[in-house]
Design brief:
22% strand, single chain, alpha+beta, five-stranded mixed beta sheet, 15 helices, globular, seven-stranded mixed beta sheet, 26% helix
């Protein structure tokens, strides 16, 4: 999962990294499991005569926070637990929000608007298509007191690549990394990679004097919060890093994550004042408190979460007929799904990129038209079609969408068997591509390549042979010209809808968090990451 769910999945739902289903935008496969996407095939690109040298802005300094804003604590309910704290391995969406963006810092990060901004690197310069210079932040120390330097970046890259860790595919394009001095790095790539900065967001920098085993049990980074303790299936406790590199932050002294898989129980705790916030709340569950003046609903400016039905085209002869796939597309009742499952807060769409993406091109979605679907199936000789869909048991949104689809298909004589299974079984079928169709969702990153690299490439390599689509994905990732990339992604979006392959985008999913009124400065981005360093809590 080169990067990317919900309540009752006591663990994965955080990921969707590959999430896939849960991926987070890593670069490989399904979120709940460590994705390992194959390195992109090298491609030949024409280097323009003149390259535009880009340099990042230096992060603005924030005025020191008044002492009166410090000294507070925040308790957040989360749906599942985390049992491996090493950022090089864990790609769950939940891990990204709870540990990777609180305990650790990468070279670059994403702000609330999904823009790449400086973190441990204060600026960078692209010398040519394959050469990057990074200027590192001075005066930074890790939580164990070790001063941060270029050697720690080199150490992080080396351990990730040599041990083939989860995020190794993000660093695969690197030919060599040279330490110029303590705060300057030169990185040379094997080939042009347009997504390189976006990929670096997923690589949390770890100190060179902490072992892999130690990181699994007690994470040590340079982020705004330090790890204090973990009580399995109960709580993860963090405390303020007094030496954090961003002046005046974090604004909390203590940050506690309580494991409360049941959303109803979490809401009752919020109402009783036992907790201050709930991370990642299903819209349906939040309706019970939508009129409560003491509860605040928080959403990102735009959601990057898309609900998908991935098609095991090679596994079912009927699905190999494009007319059958187009017929199925006409049976997706997006209006009913939006109102019933998402209470009108979803985005009706069928394109595989979210609306906030610079590469998004609106597509004309197949109308919900059962008579048209019936006619297409009759012409294909598949009027009595039977197939199945894999869903995760207890994941209500997934079950409900499958049930709505099943009812529509039944009206035209098609039988959809809904196979509900526990997460591990679902994941096994997903990874091995052992299904007719499978429900999933994915949180896209700032670069459109995240969707195509993590979700599409494994499908194209296994259940849907489409050389043109595969080459477009490779070329778009290797081309630095944004207008050329946008044209390629436009074609990929068009092909997805026209061919109804390798997946059907059902909806853009809403993201939601709940807090009490005493919580302020709660900011979240389109990957469902909360910027906890900015949060304050009134006494």
């Amino acid at each position: 999962m080169h990067r990317s769910v919900r309540r009752s999945m006591s663990r994965v739902f955080s990921a969707m990294t590959v999430l896939v289903f849960l991926l987070s935008a890593c670069g490989a496969q399904p979120q709940a499991s460590p994705p390992t996407s194959a390195p992109a095939t090298p491609t030949t690109t024409t280097v323009p005569a003149e390259l535009t040298v880009t340099q990042s802005p230096v992060a603005p300094t924030t005025p020191p926070t008044p002492a009166s804003a410090m000294g507070s604590s925040l308790t957040v309910a989360i749906s599942g637990d985390i049992d491996n704290f090493d950022p090089a391995y864990n790609q769950l969406i939940l891990y990204e929000a709870v540990i990777r963006n609180t305990v650790f810092s990468p070279l670059v990060t994403l702000d609330k608007d999904m823009q790449i901004v400086p973190a441990l690197a204060t600026s960078w310069e692209q010398k040519d298509e394959t050469t990057w210079i990074f200027n590192l932040r001075k005066g930074v120390t890790f939580h164990n007191g070790k001063p941060f330097s270029a050697e720690d970046v080199l150490h992080t890259f080396d351990r990730t690549i040599k041990q083939k860790m989860t995020f190794a595919s993000k660093l695969e394009p690197i030919e060599r990394t040279e330490v110029i001095d303590d705060h300057t790095l030169k990185i040379t790539l094997k080939r042009p990679v347009a997504t390189f900065l976006d990929d670096l967001y997923d690589v949390a920098i770890t100190p060179s004097n902490v072992s892999d085993e130690e990181l699994k049990r007690k994470p040590v980074g340079a982020g705004p919060f330090r790890f204090v303790s973990w009580t399995p299936n109960e709580a993860i406790v963090l405390e303020r890093n007094p030496n954090y590199w961003e002046p005046g932050k974090p604004r909390l002294d203590r940050l506690t994550f309580r494991v409360l898989p049941d959303t109803t129980a979490a809401i009752l705790n919020l109402l009783a004042g036992e907790i201050d916030a709930i991370y990642d709340v299903p819209v349906a569950d939040a309706q019970a408190v939508k009129d409560n003046p003491n509860i605040v609903f928080h959403r990102p400016s735009a959601s990057g979460s898309l609900f998908l039905i991935e098609l095991g085209i090679a596994n079912n002869p009927a699905l190999q007929d494009v007319q059958v796939r187009r017929a199925l597309a006409h049976t997706i009742d997006r209006a009913t799904i939006n109102q019933t499952v998402y209470f009108g807060e979803g985005q009706v769409t069928c394109t595989p990129l979210p609306a906030f993406s610079w590469a998004y091109v609106e597509q004309e979605c197949p109308a919900y038209d059962l008579e048209r679907a019936r006619a297409l199936l009759k012409a294909a000789g598949k009027s009595d079609l039977t197939f199945s869909i894999e869903v995760i048991s207890g994941l209500k949104a997934m079950e409900d969408i499958a049930t709505i689809w099943q009812a529509s298909l039944r009206q035209i004589g098609v039988t959809l068997e809904i196979n509900k299974s526990e997460l591990n079984t679902w994941l096994d079928r997903y990874v091995n591509k052992n299904y007719d169709t499978i429900a999933n969702w994915f949180n896209t990153s700032s670069d459109p390549n995240s969707m195509f690299d993590i979700i599409y490439k494994p499908l194209l390599a296994s259940v849907y042979n489409n050389p043109k689509m595969n080459q477009l994905i490779l070329d778009a990732a290797a081309t630095s010209d944004r207008s050329a990339r946008k044209a390629m992604y436009a074609e990929l979006q068009r092909m997805t809808v026209d061919e109804t392959a390798p997946l059907i985008v059902v909806m853009g999913q809403p993201m939601l968090a709940l807090t009490s009124r005493k919580v302020t400065n709660w900011e979240m981005n389109g990957r469902n990451v909360i910027l906890f360093q900015n949060v304050t809590v009134a006494p």
